[in-house]
Amino acid sequence: MIMLAALVPAILGSLVTVVVLWPDGRGGPDPRLQPGTLIEERETGAVRATTGGVCPGAPEDRLPDGTIPDTALCATATVEVLTGEDRGAVLDVPIPPQVYRSGLAEGTRITLGRFPGGEAAESTAGAAPSGEVYAWVDFARTLPLSVLAGVFAVLVVAVGRLRGLGALAGLALAYATIALYLLPALQEQSNALAVSVSSAVLIMTVLLYLAHGFSARTTAALLGTVLGIGLAAGLATWASWAARLNGLTDEETFTLSSLTGIDDLSGIVLAGIIIAGLGVLNDVTITQVSAVWEVHEAAPDRSFGELFRSGMRIGRDHLASTVYTIAFAYAGAALPTLLLIDLYGRPFDQVVTTGAIAEEVVRTAVGSIGLILAIPVTTAIAAAAVARRGGPPRRALARPAARGEA
Q1: CA–CA distance from 311 to each of 89, 104, 122, 286 (Å)?
Q2: What are 104-134's pLDDT values in tens digits?
Q3: Regarding the domain delimited by 162-392, which CATH topology (the fold level of the hierarchy) does it fall under?
């Protein structure tokens, strides 16, 4: 009851925040309505052949020494359109030279962008009989990603059974929360801290109870998680302000700022830091609560202090591996940026203070500090919860052992 009394206000507060800040669909500009932005539709095509040629050099062909070459490789793919109103049409579509060099085999499925062609469509590369113009976007990955997601879901249910099914259902609701509430609210420039914290609390509440059931153990883990979210949110707010993380670090973020009309993306950075740490935080709190519960089951007469110390010994071992997990995950995500910076040969102190790397450093540090603080907090909550329950009578503990021996 004490845990619920502490937890219910946080959940209700998050629900009220969601209701108050729920996006109305009118606060953020539609990217399609931005001046100069073309309306692009996506279609699928199959490569039939590729050809390479020589074209005059352009600024995007700039060499490492800064010079623009006189000539550069230009490549074209002959593509059959497989979807849409131009299905069956065969077009010559320009492709990036890097894609051509890496190899684009016949039969490869790619994604095409379809744009209004206008009067010059007939003389434009990638123009279809309908007058629409098609351009290279990316490889088509729907099939392999669908297969991978299906295998993941089957294995989760096969191994986790009802708990696995509950975890998948919770994950679906979590993504729905992000898609329907978090992203639109951020686009409407609602308070990023309130939006991200309320999203995190509700996501973790649904995930934990669906995956682990309604029990005192789950409630203890959720309370530790909510406190961890609060600690991480406070630290992330300070770190984002102190490090001046405005989110404008690359071409994509500048495009985002232009399309949404948001000049300062620091709120989006803050929300990203909070949401990014949820998975690891949840892992730590569940592990700590389970560890304390198991110690109590094995030795029901242990006091709060003994349970806490036992849980912390397990937590320290878990902490070391979890910190590595966070650091390597973020390093892997930022690897292309790290390689690019390394090519420039800049000093280490300049590298780590650039906007893109600073965001990863702050994200790693905040996530790690949040889970470090969550370990003793959650362990104390779990130890207090089981210590108050006390242990079952000795004869009740002896009966299962006797049956197992028989």
Answers
A1: 66, 54, 72, 12
A2: 889 999 999 888 765 444 444 567 776 788 8
A3: Multidrug efflux transporter AcrB transmembrane fold (1.20.1640)
